[in-house]
Design goal:
Blueprint: H1 14-24, E1 32-36, H2 49-58, E2 61-65
Parallel strand pairs: 1-2
Length: 72
């Protein structure tokens, strides 16, 4: 059995997202959807659009938001 590769960085930045993608050695042809859940603006873990923009641009992708619906 082949052992999986694990990629880790202590640096969390838009540039590192692109470097990690490039390290995978995979090129995605055609239309690319970047699925993510950005969280809710104002919360401490909110993922700002500026953070993922370099990766989305690098893969010529479109963001596909994956929100959570809360039942009341």
């Amino acid at each position: 059995m082949t052992k999986p590769k694990v990629y880790f960085t202590k640096d969390v930045s838009p540039e590192i997202l692109v470097k990690v993608y490039d390290a995978l050695g995979i090129k995605l042809p055609g239309k690319v959807a970047v699925k993510l859940h950005s969280g809710e603006k104002g919360n401490p873990n909110y993922l700002h659009p500026e953070f993922v923009k370099p990766l989305v641009d690098h893969v010529n992708g479109t963001v596909v938001e994956c929100n959570t619906a809360y039942a009341g």
